Amino acid sequence: MVAERQVLRFLLNDGPVSLTECAPTLTLLDFLRLQRRLTGTKEGCAEGDCGACTVLVGRLAETGLIYESVNACIRFVGSLDGCHVVTVEALARDGALHPVQAALVEHHGSQCGFCTPGFVMSLYALWMRKPAANVAQIEKALQGNLCRCTGYAPIVRAAQAIAGADPSGDVLVAERARVAAALAAMRDGARVRLGDGADMLILPADVEDLVALRDVHPDATLVAGATDVGLWVTKFLRPIGPVIFVGHLDELRRIEDAADGVTLGAGVSYSAAYGVIARRYPQVTELWDRIGGEQVRNMGTIGGNIANGSPIGDTPPALIALGARLRLRSAAGARELALEDFFVAYGRQDRGPTEFVEEVFVPALPPNAALAAYKITKRLDEDITAVCAAFRMVRAGDRVADIRIAYGGMAGTPKRAAAAEAALRGAVWSAEAARAAMAALGQDFAPVSDWRASAEYRMLVARNLIWRFWLEQGGGAGDVRLDRPLAAAI
């Protein structure tokens, strides 16, 4: 029998919070501003895009207590059990600004000031993680923060000014042991349940408890990172209850790095996966760096990106090209299938009513394999995909022994380009073969027009990405790395 408690517990700045009532759709932003009057955290976009609502959430991991920047506007309070929430109000102490705040003042990093608390919190998270961050690391940390006034240069200068400063006297560093002990005391292994019916939220005790709960509540919404579900609530006002939160389950945050490949639990965030992705599949890191902003990468999960079945999800094309396999779980047992077979049609996946994605296995790259992933968007950072493409090719001499090509944004699901693959498989790797594959894409896809791109543009870009891959894999003179799509090559 699983122990159960009817209270949600977490730390907020320097004090404990215990909630016996909490709507499953209550966002952290609304809780902070409306219930706790902590109005330094701002609402800008309410969709995890602008970063004005950035706060830090600390949690216990295998490596100890870690703090990550998150978007409070799409983070649900129900997911915070056993966490430490830190807002901008916690930084200044005894009338003195925190070094991050003082640097922004000194370097004129704020004008209207609306976005400033979010920038402070993002830079604070970076400063604790990398006290001597360089410009590239600063810019990456600020991908998820938008400012319409300053032009970013003074904000980057402020971040540079504190680079190398000793963070040992910082309050979160100095009190790390005390906070870690307090969070550890909250981890009693119990299931958390609040409310009833559509207003019920549940945090399973473990994965076995999740299996049992899913069997009883097949209509419940599973929420891990909420980077997608959060918008269902804030933008579409959709009812999502009852809700089962799963982002806290350690078993779903497991990463196994083995000789034959990498196993990622469904709850592994983009940020947590970055190290093993960069180590084993470095050609994918450029794509990974452009998944949302830092806050989204800290919250969003690999399993969630797959399970929601979006045709423009960032990770499925690369994972399909790599030959990834899914493990689905339910009370009836577990089963595995190729990731490409999981996506049946728009809005429909090969998943039973009580099944959930438990993990994804990504095979190791063969020693002689070429891999590439490309994301085409209207703006470089923090934008939704218009077309995403991924290629994995193995050559035997001058011929293509094996090729896997997957696209997102070209159909109702992420999908392999079977005809384009057939045009290349067994052929001499040449400009003629690349052009044949480009022409074959018309058999694979009939893209649609929407506000992201027209059908004609999508097909043109998809074909050009094959030509780009050809140039980068020996078709150009010397070592070629292209930064922009080409004009029509067919």
Give a written overview of the molecule.
This protein has 490 residues and is α+β, with helices and mostly antiparallel strands. It has helices spanning 28-35, 99-106, 116-129, 135-141, 153-162, 171-174, 176-186, 207-216, 229-234, 270-280, 285-288, 294-299, 302-307, 315-321, 339-342, 418-424, 431-444, 455-475, and strands at residues 4-5, 8-12, 15-19, 54-61, 64-71, 84-86, 191-194, 201-203, 221-223, 243-245, 255-258, 261-265, 325-330, 333-338, 343-345, 348-349, 356-363, 369-376, 387-396, 399-408, 415-416. The chain folds into four domains: 4-89 and 175-245, Ubiquitin-like (UB roll); 99-169, Orthogonal Bundle (DNA polymerase, domain 1), CATH 1.10.150.120; 250-363, Uridine Diphospho-n-acetylenolpyruvylglucosamine Reductase, domain 3, CATH 3.30.465.10; 369-475, CO dehydrogenase flavoprotein, C-terminal domain (Enolase-like, domain 1), CATH 3.30.390. The strands form five sheets. It has a five-stranded mixed β-sheet with strand order 1-7-8-10-9, covered by helices on one side. The chain has a five-stranded mixed β-sheet with strand order 3-2-6-4-5. The model is unreliable at 484-490 (pLDDT under 50).
Which helices and strands appear, and what pairs or packs with what?
Blueprint: E1 4-5, E2 8-12, E3 15-19, H1 28-35, E4 54-61, E5 64-71, E6 84-86, H2 99-106, H3 116-129, H4 135-141, H5 153-162, H6 171-174, H7 176-186, E7 191-194, E8 201-203, H8 207-216, E9 221-223, H9 229-234, E10 243-245, E11 255-258, E12 261-265, H10 270-280, H11 285-288, H12 294-299, H13 302-307, H14 315-321, E13 325-330, E14 333-338, H15 339-342, E15 343-345, E16 348-349, E17 356-363, E18 369-376, E19 387-396, E20 399-408, E21 415-416, H16 418-424, H17 431-444, H18 455-475
Parallel strand pairs: 1-7, 2-6, 8-10, 9-10
Antiparallel strand pairs: 2-3, 4-5, 4-6, 7-8, 11-12, 12-17, 13-14, 13-17, 15-16, 18-19, 19-20, 20-21
